[in-house]
Amino acid sequence: MENFDRHQHWENIYRTKQLFESGWYQPVPVTSLDFLKQANLPLTAKIIDIGGGDSYFIDHLLDLGYQDITVLDISETAIERAKERLGDRAKKVKWIVEDVTQFSPGEQYDFWHDRAAFHFLTQDHEIENYVQTLRKGICTGGILVIGTFSEKGPKKCSGIDIRQYSESAMTNLLKTFFTKIKCITVDHKTPSETIQNYTFCSFRKSQVA
């Protein structure tokens, strides 16, 4: 999409919609929490949530007692809404306002979570850049959990195109640096009662990376 301003698009979304009106709204992100539980991380693990915005995943991480949490989102409005909701607890979180395609991690993470951010990258060079960012930003043995619309899911979201992924497509994309742990497909019911089918996969970063 020529001259598309991704930052402005998402600022407009978050300025005009409340969280409970958004298609990705999940008071309890069950699938993400299940993958987190399976990772069996210590509470001191470094965790980053990509495109976390004002989602409730961060609330649950804090409730569980995790101590080193980072949230990255392209929208400052989304992050400010999350901070307002969390109150004093927001001080326990590192907040990064940035487009993930421009993100250069200053540390390595034990658990990298991305629910429905990656599939908005439709250009090959952006996807390759993201994979290289994963390589740099996850420690050896670290866990990547990524959720995208499946091939049975929507082809657009929030008015823009997305890229769908099957288990095999996701695995092939990441196989150079990551070993698949498991993949599942799940149905997410939006506030408008529509069903969106997701591919969720977990990977472990390999030694070769």
Our Rg estimate from Cα atoms comes to 16 Å
Percent range of helical residues: 25-40%
For the secondary structure, the number of strands is: 9
* Total tally of structural domains: 1
Which CATH top level class fits? Answer: Alpha Beta
What is the global morphology?
Answer: globular
Sheet with most strands: 7 strands, mixed
Provide the CATH architecture: 3-Layer(aba) Sandwich
Low-confidence stretches: none
User: Structural class of the secondary elements?
Assistant: alpha/beta
CA(first)-CA(last) distance? 32 Å
Describe this structure in words.
- The chain is of the alpha/beta class and 209 residues long.
- The chain has a single domain (6-205), classed as Vaccinia Virus protein VP39 (Rossmann fold, 3-Layer(aba) Sandwich), CATH 3.40.50.150.
- It is 30% helix and 30% strand.
- It has 6 helices and 9 strands; from the N terminus they run H-H-E-H-E-H-E-E-H-E-E-E-H-E-E.
- The strands form 2 sheets. Strands 3-2-1-4-5-9-8 form a 7-stranded mixed β-sheet, with helices on both faces. The protein has a two-stranded antiparallel ribbon with strand order 6-7.
- A hairpin with a 2-residue loop joins strand 6 and strand 7 (160-161).
- The longest helix has 14 residues, at 124-137.
- The N and C termini lie far apart (32 Å).
